[in-house]
Specification:
Layout (H helix, E strand, L loop, with lengths): L10 H4 L4 E3 L3 H12 L19 E3 L2 E8 L4 E7 L7 E3 L4 E8 L1 E5 L4 E5 L3 E4 L6 E4 L5 E8 L7 E4 L22 E2 L7 E2 L8 E7 H6 L5 E6 L3 H5 L20 E7 L1
Amino acid sequence: MTELADDHVPVAVRGNPVVRIDPGPGDFAALRDAVRRGNRVGNEQHDADAHLDEVIPKPWGLEYRVFADDFLDVWHLTIEAGHATSLHVHPRKLTYLLCLAGQGVTRTLSGEHPVGAGTVLRIGGGAFHSTVSLGPGPLALVEVEAPRNKFDLIRLRDGYRRENTAYESEHRKLDELPVRPVPYLPEARMRDRSPCAEFRFDIRAGMDIFYRRRREDLFHIPLGPTGVVTGELDILAPAQGDIRRPAVDEYYLSLSIA
């Protein structure tokens, strides 16, 4: 578990901002059993599954896409107080959970990790996990997935009777805030703010981040194929005292308070 300091800022954030959650023997056994029972993971068709660009209602809240290209997928999740995601796994992709606001706990088959503003969890492929919102308000998370594949999902247990079901096809149009192409990034598209107007999303060069630091910045996510190839994303968390320098020759997706 991540140690908490007196001011409730995760100690891990001040040095290395990432809490690692890797699969263990229990995860491998549970995954084998799920596959033997007939559970299958799907493959997203990048040019066909258009509903993924809309709001996806969930029994615990909602989620919608912030950014996508051929390598990364970034989603904003709102988990209402007292609700939780299923205990699920992504066998083939790496997931980072970034907490923008709220309080919660991410539970695995072997333990749990507190989640609060500034927390960064790195969840390896094959590690079962579930996140609960402790309230009093909703838990706001950003989920970074590498490689992009929303259908890489197996639900083991669920409080809403969705065990062994695939990713949702139900969706709700978000005409006032559509996903737009990013002209200078191949095959990339994004939204520039949250529907509630509480958070802002924009793409910035590492050079710009370094020389124009902003008090409202929460996280900087490096873009491009490197994270998929290496299995590591060097996510910066400036709001939590992360003083590491951005790579000046890379683009970042910046998550900020609006």
